[in-house]
Amino acid sequence: MKIDWKLVKKISETPGVSGFESAIRNLIIKEVSPYCDSIRIDNMGNVTAFRKGKSDQKLLLAAHMDEIGFIVNYIDDEGFLHFLPLGGFDPKTLTAQRVIVHGKKDLLGVMASKPIHIMSPEERKKSVEIKDYFIDLGLPKDEVAKYVEVGTPVTRERSLEKLGNCINGKSLDNRISVYTLIETLKLIKDEELPFDLYACFTVQEEVGIRGAHSVSLAVDPDFSIAIDTTIAYDVPGSIPRESVTKLGHGVAIKIMDASAISDYRMTKYMKGIANKEGIKWQPELLPAGGTDTAIIQRLNKNGAIAGAISIPTRHIHQVIESVHQEDVKNAIKLLSKIILKIDQFDWSHQ
Ligand SMILES: [Zn+2]
After folding, report:
1. I need a labelling partner for 80 at 20 to 30 A (CA). Which of 37, 88, 177, 306 fits?
2. Whole-angstrom Cα distance, residue 70 to residue 84?
3. Number of domains in the chain
């Protein structure tokens, strides 16, 4: 299995901040169409690719397509843009970044703040807050006003690159999972599926797992699996029990995070498959944060037998997120086997 660099680059670099996912949605629809029986796009903009299985038990897979970004909430007299974040940001990650302002046309901007030279000694000691930043488009107010209005979305500008054994770029949370799900659909395209498969690409996860609500209600799944990134804090300064996962140590099987406990049968099933198929994996227990799993597990009639697979990610929620190529390949392999063998496990409560 090889990484499709052209595709992963396109998926990472295509803009799609929460609530403004049109460009990435169109790319996903184009990429998955050849590998499913039908596609449904709901009113929120979630995309569900359906494939009929032998039995009508339902397996829902969910990867969120949105990325963290910003929205313009004020344009000042000098033409500088002020904004609100869409998604969780550590303010220090905004320093010295280029951004793309998606107005009537895309404009390049820089995320700017006060130079250290003119900060008072007290200011230097304080950590910078999101409200201390503004966007400089290099244009006067009247030019800015032609293209940008309050409510215009903004994304981070960064190209995807190969970095050692890794894939490095912006928005790998969660575009690497979008890539993983698309590649999984390709890998199983000629296989007969045991259960009906709903491969969902959800919107607005980063602002509070919102798109997954309508998807879960619509599909009403028996089984659900989210695909997302997780923390790999395996870097200088970390201690082993803090690392959550380690880059290159395999695809992560989620045991729990702050918003969901994976079904004990699902984790047993996943681990069994990984061990039998020789797929390198590691457990994930994340003390804070959550994924679409939280909603697709419980927002349906009977509750779903839910789990999640995660792709270890260093420097998460920064524009230089790194994932290991082998972990991505293992995620694709594991997900495809999970889909194909799901009817071969005893799912009764024990
Ligand atoms: Zn995510």
Report:
1. 88
2. 6
3. 2
